[in-house]
Write a structure and sequence with these properties.
Strand content: 5-15%
Strand order of the largest sheet: 3-4-5-6
Mean pLDDT: 97
Helix content: 25-40%
Low-confidence stretches: none
Length: about 270
Amino acid sequence: AAAAGGFTSVVMMANTAPALDEPDTLRDVLRRATDEKIHVYSCATVTKGMNGKELCDLKALHDVGAAGFTDHGKPIMDAALLEEAFRMAASLNVPVSLHEEDPAFISENGVNTGKAAAALGLTGADRRAEIVMIERDLEIASKYNVKLNIQHISTAEGVEAVRCAKRNNPNIHAEATPHHFTLTDSAVSTYGTLAKMNPPLRSEADREAIWEGLSDGTIDLIATDHAPHSLEEKSSEFKKAPSGIIGLETSFLLAYSVLVKKDILDY
């Protein structure tokens, strides 16, 4: 998929089965990756089993070849645990990437709270889920010399929080996905579960804020969050269907069509 999309290198996330939380598991994945025709790197998890309770041995995982650390798809709710992870990652000079969604503000994941959710008879995922976590983690990161990446940013408030933090901390980074700068939550009404993802598609105002963030360098990464699922899986009812959308094959075309043609970014 990555090669078809024109990528020569990819960094895999660690939310595999089993999770990449042990050196032997990571070593095996990286060994098998050498058989591919592109460069394949991988993150390891921050916490064991991605359960947010116990830190992995980050140094041991880094020694094996972890490119960074992430409990991809899951927030790290324990602030003290995250602080310790930041301290360790800073000493290793590798990034920590965070999925920022507080479950306290999510009734059903994958759809933005608003008209699209209401049409499905759902409450959905409130934008505050992302905002409060981004603000908390930017504050924690300010105490350490850690390279922090805010993954798949989806809200205007999240973009602004990163913009403010970057003025004083050059180690703060943020990603936008092709789907978040291309689509809005109206796509859920058209495509149903095919447009279900975490964090969810948001409003037109949020999409435009992401455009502005990309244009002024607040958001310095376009990352696919490539998450393929079978049609059979996606054919379930909305609450039961998995979240995720592909992105590797389409990201360059979407970036060209949406960003370059609108003069938001140049080549």
